[in-house]
Structures are given as C-alpha cells and as structure tokens.
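For practice. Supply one:
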Amino acid sequence: MPELPEVESARAVVERGALGRRIVDVDDTDTWECRPHAPGEIREALLGRTLVAAHRRGKSMWCTTSAREGDGDPAAEGPVLGLHLGMSGRILVRDRPEAGGGEEQEGGDYAGRTGDRRKEEWHRFTLRFADGGSLRLLDPRRLGRVRLDPDLTGLGPDAAEVGREAFRARVGRGTLPLKARLLDQATVAGIGNLLADETLWQAHLSPLRPAGELDDDQLDHLRRVLRRCTRAAIERGGVHTGEVIGHRRAGAHCPRCRAAMTRATVGGRTTWWCPQEQV
C-alpha cells in the first residue's frame, strides 16, 4: 500500500492545488469508500467550505476545513476530512474546469502512471470547486477511505519527524523482530514493507534481529538512515525507487556484495535482505 512518501506526495498536491477553493458539490455516493457515513452526509458537512490545510502523519492524511460564509464565528473550523489512500489510491487535483481540459496534479501510489485516470468508476470520491476544478480520489482497488473527523490517536510519531529519544524508546525494546517493530504504526507511523526493507538494507541490519538488542548508537544510526531513505523516496517519486527494491525477487543478488538475497515472512510481510551484510 502507499507508504509515507506516497502519502506525502498526495498531501503536497492537495496543499499546492486545492486549498482555499470553495466546495460547491461533493460526490460521496460510494458507500464502501465513505463508510460509515451515509450517502450525502459528507456532502452536507462540506458544502460551502474550503480546505484550509493539508496534514499527514505516517500513512494518514487529513484536511482541516473552514467555517461557511455567514456562520456566526468566521474563525471557527469546520469538520476534518480524512483521506486514506488504501493500497492503490491517488489524489487528482484539477485547477481549471474539466470541460476545458486544464492542468491536473497527481499524488499518491506511483503518481504519474497514465492510462487509468479516466476510468470514471475508479473515482471514488470527488470535491467540486466553485472555479470549476475538482479534487478526486482515484482508487482502482477500492481500499481507500474517506471519513469525517478521523481518529488518529492510535498512531505513533511520524517516521520522518520522530526525535532521537522517542525513536530509541519506541523501537529499541522487546523481542519482536526489528522489521516487525518498524511496521507497527503505533510505534512509528509511516513505514511500510518496501521502506522497511530499504532502510534495513541501507543500515546493514537484519530484519530478524530482536529490536531490543540494538544499542543506542545502532538505533541512532537506524533513525538517520530511515530519515535519509524517506527523503530520497519523496524526492524520487515513491518507495519503489529504493536501491534494493528491484532486487527483492528470487534469483536476485545484493547490489553491494552480490550475495544471493534471502526471503522470509517477517511481521506478516514478505521480506528480502542480504544475509552477508545485514546482521
């Protein structure tokens, strides 16, 4: 599923192209994507408002909204709009009326892929703006989620921002395999399967190693590598651009030492690593 870098690209698209535009219509008729809200509930809550800011923690994204014109307190905030991309979701923001073509920004799972964005049945949720543009959630596999006032209390600190002491305390504990600890969104939010494999390969650490065995220096190194891998994935367009990702397959070899890559299931996810260098 989209990991922190993909969700950050979607958040940035919303921030660049969708803020401050008055919402005049909402398509929230997909009862699976918009559950538990009934059709029309999100629409009623958002009509006449604008998106004020786009936020992210880990893989979760949400937008604050404004009060409506004519509301008693113009400084009051509207409901929070949660947008979860699921496994294949992308955000598409059009800056001019669709009838005239216009420019469209895209962020999310492997943003920039072409050939599928025109399939209307994959547009699971749409905001239409007074200027004729729109924000759409394109989700072929229908595993995303749109929700008002989402609950974010179960998430740990963001993987791109977690501090040194918090990382040491949260990650460096217990007997759980290191990769499983990193994948736990309550420990640190935003690390998915590919980012975990890339980070551990870059850090020369085995995914099987008990997390509590790492000393402070090793944990500090791991945190620095995680931040570096996350920044690189954001800049390059997603976690699929990592140096070891193309070698996560049968018959492949470590791109550093040429040892045969090893496969196992760790934390419920398919995991690849170099047995020679990752200890």
Q: What stands out?
A: The two ends are 27 Å apart (CA to CA). The longest helix spans residues 216-236. The longest strand covers residues 51-57. Residues 203 and 218 are 9 Å apart (CA to CA).
